[in-house]
């Protein structure tokens, strides 16, 4: 029987797991949008893919760490969500991506940032 855990247990009830689930969804939408971009926008697409995929990766890694190391990864996730948001807004303003799908990803990244902010700055 395999007892290896594939998802780290949340350290704060439901927040890391919820943030991670939303981050996977928002990153998936952002990556799908990036993959549909023309060659002329390849550099922006690559940056969007890197920043969007960094969000769930750092949330997951932070959940498996402790102390300042955990906070470091969650701060990176927060900043990467801001970066992905910026790339999406640029592509949206340029008319290069589907507006409804971009709006969905932007809303999800906003929710991820809110949850991540609470992980970084818990109420005392």
Summarize, please.
By secondary structure, this protein is mostly helical.
Key traits:
124 residues, mainly alpha, 74% helix, 0% strand, elongated, disordered N terminus
Care to describe what's here?
With 124 residues, the chain is mainly alpha-helical. The protein has one domain (15-120): 23S rRNA-intervening sequence (de novo design (two linked rop proteins), Up-down Bundle). It is built from four helices and no strands. The protein has helices at 15-35, 42-63, 67-93, 99-120. The N and C termini lie far apart (41 Å).
The count of β-strands is 0
**CATH class designation:** Mainly Alpha
What is the rounded distance between the termini?
41 Å
Class by SSE composition: mainly alpha
- CATH architectural type: Up-down Bundle
| Contiguous uncertain segments of 5+ residues | 1-13
Helix content: over 70%
List the topology elements:
Layout lengths: L14 H21 L6 H22 L3 H27 L5 H22 L4
Helix pairs in contact: 1-2, 1-4, 2-3, 3-4
């Amino acid at each position: 029987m395999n007892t290896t855990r594939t998802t780290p247990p949340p350290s704060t009830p439901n927040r890391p797991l919820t943030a991670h689930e939303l981050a996977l969804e928002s990153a998936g939408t952002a990556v799908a949008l990036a993959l549909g971009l023309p060659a002329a926008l390849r550099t922006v697409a690559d940056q969007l893919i890197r920043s969007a995929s960094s969000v769930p990766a750092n949330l997951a890694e932070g959940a498996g760490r402790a102390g300042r190391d955990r906070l470091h990864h969650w701060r990176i996730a927060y900043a990467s969500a801001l970066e992905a948001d910026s790339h999406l807004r640029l592509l949206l303003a340029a008319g290069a991506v589907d507006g409804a799908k971009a709006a969905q990803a932007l809303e999800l990244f906003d929710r991820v940032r809110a949850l991540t902010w609470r992980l970084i700055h818990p109420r005392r």
